[in-house]
Amino acid sequence: MKAKKIAIMQPYFFPYIGYFQLINAVDIFVFYDDVNFIKKGWVNRNNVLVNGQAKLITVPLEGASQNLLINQINLTITNKWKKKFFKTLDFNYKKALNYDLILPLIKEVIDGNHRTISDLSIYSVKKVSEHLGIDVKFELSSLKHKETKGLEKASRLIEIAKLNKIDNYINPKGGMDLYNKKDFMKKGVKLDFITTNKIKYPQFKNDFVPNLSIIDVMMFNSKDEIKEMLTKYSLI
Question: Which H/E stretch holds residue 13?
Answer without folding.
Answer: none
